[in-house]
Structures are given as C-alpha cells and as structure tokens.
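Justification of resources, computational component.

The compute hours requested in this renewal are based largely on the per-chain cost of generating structure records like the one below. Each record pairs the submitted sequence with a full structure-token output. That output is archived, and it is also reused by downstream analysis tasks.
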Amino acid sequence: MLVGAAALTLVATPGVTLGSPAAVASSAPGPTACQAHVPSRVLPIWARAGFSSPKPRMPFVLGAAGKIVAIQWSDPLVSPPSARYHNKILWVSRRPATPGSMLRIGAQRLTGGQPVGPVLQRAVSGGPGPSIIDLPPAGCWRLTLRWSGRSDTLDLRYVSKR
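The structure output for this chain reads:
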C-alpha cells in the first residue's frame, strides 16, 4: 500500500538495465515500443518509498535516461478515460525534486515511431507525484518530462476503451 512517495537516493537496480524492454518502453519502433500491457515488476529501490512491501511489484515504465519512473496504477491506460477508473500514474524522480516545482509534460503521439500531430501539454503541481494523465486519442505517446532542472522521456500506450 502506498502511504507517500519520495525519491531517496541514486542506486542501481539489479536485473534492470536501462534501455532493456524490462526497464523502459522503447522509443524505437517494434514489438517492445509502447507496450499495451506493462508487466508488474519489482520497483527500482529508489522508487519504493511509501510502499509497505520491501519489494513492491507494480507496472512501471522507466525513463530513457533513468531519471524518473512512471508507476501505472491503471493498466492499461485508456482513451477516452474510463468512468470506472482513472489513468493514475505515480511519477517518482530518482533524485529528490525541488519543493514546489512542477512536473511539465509534453506528450506527442507516435505512429510507426515517428511523431505526429501537436504536442499536448500537461502539468503536475508539486513536481513528480500522483497524477491522472488523460491523452486523446488512443495510441503510443512520447512524453517529454521536465522538473527541477532535469528532463527525461518515456513512451506510454493508451488503448481504446472497451
């Protein structure tokens, strides 16, 4: 159970390699890019604050540079948003964010690995933390994240609501 969220320290996570399909939804086109189902795995050590289990398992996507993790409380993420549950994402920065900062998100849809359409802007008050991020339409989205003088990118897939 989550009771709070804070990044603790820079620690390597055994068994998770940056750029591997287990660590990040690849930005390259192909079967690992923008996975519709993000498997539950043990969270990186630095993203575990507030969880009661010493090795919490959650679906997550690690930023390409390894500076941030998107822990998905909803899997799959859906577009349009569901009336039954929200597209809740807990953002955890590897290094502590500056108090009062904003997490700024630029989201652009990808088709065949290429950006298409406008960049949509979203923001999370207080910096990385809990959020509900809805993106229309369904598809693969490249998110460029900026907070506390840092930046990272990751890809998330939103599927059509059933």
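The first strand starts at residue 40 and ends at 42. The domain at 40-160 is CATH 2.60.40 (Immunoglobulin-like).
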